[in-house]
Design goal:
The protein is α/β, with parallel strands linked by helices. It has one domain (7-237): 3-Layer(aba) Sandwich (Rossmann fold), CATH 3.40.50.720. It contains 8 helices and 7 strands. Helix 1 links the parallel strand 1 (7-10) and strand 2. The chain is globular. The mean pLDDT is 97.
Length: 246
């Protein structure tokens, strides 16, 4: 098990890619801190992990709230005394074309996706520095590299988390801490549920593999980056998109 006994925080873990990552990390032996603002969702994920024999802890956390994050970190340190992995996976969308986007839409996405990533990482970085070890993984998106129609706010955040990650890779590498980013493409999660079938089919047709990705396929990359198998991977931006941007 490549993550045996690693203390791992995964934000946005109540469903989708975050849920898949929490389950994958548990399968690989990690002790998983399952974090999300959706308490019922994290309770469900922890139950699944415990039923398969893994160890997980529920944390209802608002990544935009510094006190909420610090309370979680304090509890983790009281219980385990270390934090080995942080996956900044929490994120939202609120799409609109630029001329129709409200300030509230822009600010909310920035607050969760960008500031939330900063706040979570800031809360654990001194712990990892003291340990002289750690792995930080930011969830970006192909939209963060190439942009997308109607996603000014989302693209800004997903480009931003790459920039932060690259800065952390330079700052923290000497402290034994690696930072990397993963850029998913079109992934089959509940976020697609409201979309018409013809729109989903059009998305599939854009991908050379002619299908959407699975959350588990992103989780597998997270697990690799979090593990010692990726011990010389630092500052990387890894696209997991089925080749949609080729």
């Amino acid at each position: 098990m490549k993550l045996k006994d690693k203390i791992s925080i995964i934000t946005g873990a109540a469903n989708g890619i975050g849920e898949a990552a929490a389950i994958k990390f548990a399968q690989e032996g990690a002790k998983v801190m399952v974090c999300d603002i959706n308490e019922a969702g994290v309770q469900n994920v922890v139950k699944k992990i415990e039923e398969m024999g893994g160890e997980a802890v529920v944390f209802q956390v608002d990544v935009t709230n510094k006190e909420s994050i610090e309370a979680m970190v304090s509890q983790i340190m009281d219980k385990y005394g270390r934090i080995d992995i942080l996956v900044n996976n929490a994120g939202i969308i609120s799409d609109a074309q630029l001329n129709k986007m409200t300030d509230e839409q822009f600010d909310r996405v920035i607050d969760v996706n960008l500031r939330g990533t900063y706040l979570c990482t800031r809360a654990i970085v001194d712990i990892m520095i003291a340990q002289n070890s750690g792995s930080i993984i930011n969830t970006s998106s192909i939209v963060g590299i190439y942009g997308n129609f109607g996603q000014t706010n989302y693209a800004a955040t997903k480009f931003g988390v790459i920039g932060m990650m690259k800065s952390w890779a330079k700052e923290l590498g000497r402290k034994g801490i690696r930072a990397n980013a993963v850029c998913p493409g079109f992934i089959a999660t509940s976020i697609l549920d409201p979309m018409p079938e013809k729109v989903i089919k059009a998305m599939e047709d854009k991908v050379p593999l002619k299908r959407l990705g699975k959350p588990e396929e992103i989780a597998n990359v997270y697990a690799f980056l979090a593990s010692d198998e990726a011990s010389y991977v630092n500052g990387a931006v890894i696209e997991v998109s089925g080749g949609v941007v080729i």
